[in-house]
Amino acid sequence: MKSGSVCVVLSMCVGCASSVGGGGGGGAMAVDATEDLGFTAATKDTASTGSDTFTDACTPACNGKECGNDGCGGTCGACPAAAPTCSAAAKCVTSCAPACSGKECGDDGCGGTCGTCPDAAAICDPGTFKCKSTTCKPSCAANSCGNDGCGGTCKCASGSVCAGTTCVAPCSPADNFCDGTTLHFCDASGAMGAKLCSDADCKAAGFVAFSQCGANTGQNKTCLCEACTAADEKCAANTAYTCDAVTGKLTAQACGAGMQCKNAACVKPCTDECTQDACNAGGQVVACQVGVDGCKKKLAPADCIGGLVCVAGSLGCAACTASGQCDAQSVCGGNGKCTTAFGHTYTIKILSGNMPLTDSTGSAWDAFGGAPDPFVNIEVNDTIVATTTSQQDTFTPVWGESFDVVLQQTDVLSLAVWDEDTTVATSDYMDGVKLGSWLAWVKSGTGNSGPLYSGSTMSLSYTIKPK
After folding, report:
1. Band of pLDDT at residue 227, cut at 50, 70 and 90
2. In whole numbers, what is the pLDDT of the chain averaged over residues?
3. Are 447 and 464 a contacting pair, CB within 8 Å?
C-alpha cells in the first residue's frame, strides 16, 4: 500500500465470514481506495443505517478572530461576560453601536444589517448602501462622472479627475487665482475648489484680520491674513491677548479666579496705586511704575538713565536744560541728554566787549590817540585754535561769532583780546582770561568775564555751550 493511502474495507457478500488481511477464499477484500477507487482524503460519516459514506474535509477559518462563524458551521470562540458582543470584525467588544447613518441596507458593523431591500429594488449597492432596482441600467456618458443613476458612480479614467459631473485633466497649484476676495485653488485631488477669504477665518486662525487675496502668484497665491502687532494686545472678557512676534498670531490666556486682565496680562487686582512719578530733593526719581504684580507702585528712588535728569519739583525723568542738572563729569548736550563732558565738542560764542580807554600804562591804544581795533584769540593749551574778526576803532566791539572746539579734561582754555595793528607781530595784547576749570564755567552757565586784569575796566561777554 502506498504511503498516506486510506484502507477501505468493502463487503463483497452478505452473510459470509469476513476478515482483513490474507486468508481463505470468499473473505473481505482489502482495497487501496485512493489508488483504485479515485477517492480523495476525506472524513468518514457512518449513518445509523450502518452504511459507510465519505464527505470532503472543512478547515475552520479563525485566523485573527475571537468569535463568530468559523466557516465550517462552528464558531471561533465564545465572548466573555466582560465583552459579550461579537463585532462585525469578529472581535469581542463591550458594546456595539450600529453604523447605519445614510444607509438603507448592508452591514451595520455589529453583526446585523441596516435594512432589507424591497423586491422592487432588491440589490444593496455595496458602495452607497442604497437599494437599487435589478433592472436599472447605469448611465455613464463619455467623460462624465458622478451618479450613474442607479445608486452607483461613474468614474473617470486614469489621468483625469472629476470636476462636478465632467472628467477633466488634473490641475496644479500654478492654476490658483483670485477673484476679488475669492480664492480659486487646486485641491489635493487635483480638482479646482473655491474659498471666500474672510476676516472670520483669519481671526479663527489667530490673526487680526483678512489682508488680501493673491499678493503672490502661482502656488503661493493664497488668502493672506494681517499679522498682529503690540498695538493689538488687549484685555477682553477677562482674557489677555498677546502678540506672538514669530507667528504673527494673537494668543489668548484666560485670567483665572482672583485675577484680572490689565495691560494684556493676567494680574492680581491692584489697590492704592500711584498715578505719576515724582522727584525728590536729591534729584532722584521716585518712579511710579508697574511692578511684577502688575500694579503701579512707588519704587525706591533711583537715578534717571539714558542721559535724562530729574529736577526736584518735576514729575519724573526728563530732558536736561542746563549742564548743572547733570553729574559732576557730565554736561547737557544739544539733544537734551547728559553726556560725558570730556572729549565733547563745545560751541564758544564771542559776543561783545567793553574796552578801557587806555592800556595798563595809561597810554592810548592807537599811536594817534584813537580807539583800538580789538579781536579775540581762542587758545587751548596756549595754541590758537580760532580767531574772531577785528572790530575797527571801537571801545565797544560786537562780534557775535561762534567756533566749535573739542575740550579734554586737562585742557586750559584761554580767551585773549588783542588790538590789531598793521601786522600781527605788532598787534598789542590787551588782556585775556584763562579758564583752567573750564567745566565749572560750562556748568555754571556764566558767560561774562571782567575786569580781566587788576585795575582794568575791560570786560568780555561770551558763552560756552556743549553741542
Report:
1. confident
2. 76
3. yes
Contact 240, 265 (CB under 8 A): yes
Q: Identify whether residues 353 and 436 lie together within a single domain.
A: yes
CA distance 118 to 136: 14
CA distance 328 to 276: 28
Largest CA distance in the chain: 187
Stronger pLDDT, 375 or 125, i.e. the higher one:
375
Q: Are residues 338 and 453 in the same domain?
A: yes
Indicate whether 34 belongs to any domain. no
Pick the residue with more confidence: 18 or 205?
Answer: 205
Number of domains within the chain: 4
The verdict on residue 351 lying in a domain is yes
- Letter for the amino acid at 124? C
Q: Which residues contact 79 (CB under 8 A, 6 or more apart)?
A: 66, 67, 85, 86, 92
Predicted local confidence at residue 57, as pLDDT: 60
Give me the residue label for grid cell 530732558.
Answer: 319
The whole domain housing 235 covers 230-267
**Same domain? 289 vs 222:** no
Residue range 270-312, pLDDT digits in tens:
777 787 877 776 677 777 777 766 678 777 777 777 888 877 6
| Terminal Cα distance for the chain, rounded | 125
